[in-house]
Amino acid sequence: MVTDETLAQARAKWQGMGLSGGGAMFTPAISPLDPNLMMLNCDMSCAFRTDDGGRNWEMIHHHYLIASTQCRPVFHPTDPNTVFAVNGYGGELRVSHDRGVTWRPVSDALPRGVLRIAIDPAGGDLMLVGCYRGDLSSVSHDAGKTWARSSGLKGAVVGFHIDQTSPPGKRRCFAGTTEGVFVSDDAGATWRPIGDGLPNRRMLEFTGGSNASDGCVLYCTTQSEIAGGNFAGGVYRSTDGGRTWQQAMGAGIDTEGRQRWGAMRAPQYPFVLTTNVHPRTVYAVREAPGQVFRSDDAGDSWRPLLFVRLNDERFNTEPSYLTAETGGWEENMSGAGINPADPDTVILTDWMCCQITHDGGKTWQTLHSRPAPGQGPVGKGQRWENTGLTVTTIWHYYFDPFEKDRRYIAYTDIGYAWSDDAGKTWRWLHGRPLRNTTYEIAFDPDTPGKMWAAFSDVHDIPNANIILERHGTHGQGGVGVSEDFGVTWQDTSEGLPGSCVISVVLDPRSPKGRRTLYASVWEHGVYKSVDDGATWTSRSATRSARREHADLPTDPASRRHPLLPCDCAAGGRRVAPGRRGPVSLAGRRRHLGVDQPVVAFDVAKGFRRGPARQPRHLLGRGGRRWPAGGRAVQDDGRRRCLAANRQGRPRHLRRHRRSARPGSGVYVSGRGRAGARAVAEQGRGGDLEALLGPAVQKRAADRLRAG
Description:
The chain is built from seven helices and 52 strands. By secondary structure, it is mainly beta.
């Protein structure tokens, strides 16, 4: 049993390192009773809290809360210590009574899949919970102690408003869903559809504000489009209790289509914010290019607020390493929140940054990055401190083999960073040959400061996004070399095919000045250089290349074969639906009769084994509900299969007989076998350790079972 005391002790021992920010952040929220208390989530499963206005953030332990990128946390309107949030994607509602430090489930009576939470500001007894299905939504009249299922809602809930002009004992409530607007005249027990004038397109968000002097003003945003050269959709408002709606895209807000991804696209407004304090003050957030607009007349006129480019005379944000090194750009917006007690305090998140304004958008404070003190005006090469918002993943954290205070991080999304003060502050580099992701760095064992790195425009190879082509998979990449401890880099990719390089390995037995290096290139195989990386030749298709791979010494620290993980990843490739395709393993092709995406995974990457051990590989094949990538074990009570599922969510896996077409699951193959064979089911031909071989340690097998 993990106790709160144990977790509190662990919490005190860890702190964020490297660059903060640099990854997508979502669902920010501000306490109306203490604006220094805030929360947000990231898409790497982590939830964060701050109690000092965003100067320092801490990651909430996953035992208590996993990030929800869909549901914004909600702070209690009268109890400064209580906050509600959803535990993970499609998860349960949880509550904290210590300002977000520890969390517990609210009630077993509530369904999972909560998307929206609302609390009546006048006391907090009335609570509404909206789900991905309207008929699963629930209401509580005793501050969450007991719950009852609502009736009448249809579609996924995208927002609530509890009308403060209605009687406290019989609140009128409004809900927006993907199927329209609904009203309840009995405090959320039953709902009926209303609304005339809304376009027949998907609703993105719904909100409202109400008080005795301004009445009740409702807002929603719908999916936009350019139809016949005209803008349609965007922000709508209602001032008559939701009965009729008018478009609120007044002068000053963007309605121009622009070319994106090869087509003319309308600006989308996924977030709209207002408060009960001033219902006619409303913010609309444009997704891309990122911008927030403010209106003080309920949408009749608007003005843009956020200016992030250093060369813009309107520049009004605090600097970050992104603006210092690149001059800044408008990133895709991913989240927005407002202080319910102060309409001038708004927090924004995007795919890289987090900013907050306390003056209605005149100036913006940067929360994801902080310059080290005493450096003067913002500029390139400056040092940056970590604020705790460690929201993107790394592939490796390196200690320099010659100078103990030098550290290096191979990053997803933000490429590469280095420190010369033992990780207290960090510098970020941007520009060619560096790219979106640095996968690996190899150090010359005899020359201080000399190092090679694998660069790629595509991140997270190989995971489900790559295998299922949810984002681009054919970016460019290369190998870079540095001779000044990673301060500057030069391209050294002559002979490489120009695709993503995901691993670089140095043979320490090769002569100084003429090092032998190997590079793994996604979908192209392994390349070799015998002249310090100056030129490269393909080595994937020859038997001699396979012998060279097997003869390379293992890493003395991990006893891992240094090249096979990248060789395996380089061989895996997506097979078009409806076609059978080959999978390349260590330069050899295996034919599997499959008609779904296939990817190869090297068991050696996570296990200890001797240098003479021949390589074994796992092949993950994805179905509609099971994207290939990562590792997990599923057990449905009848059978157990090893699954290459990065996301780790329960999925039912099938295992077919050898004579049948291979089904969703994992297949193991080693050199000398005729082809892939399915992983044995529990009670049907052996356990996992026997399958992977006697050299696999039990603790490694346990780690694989744990995901």
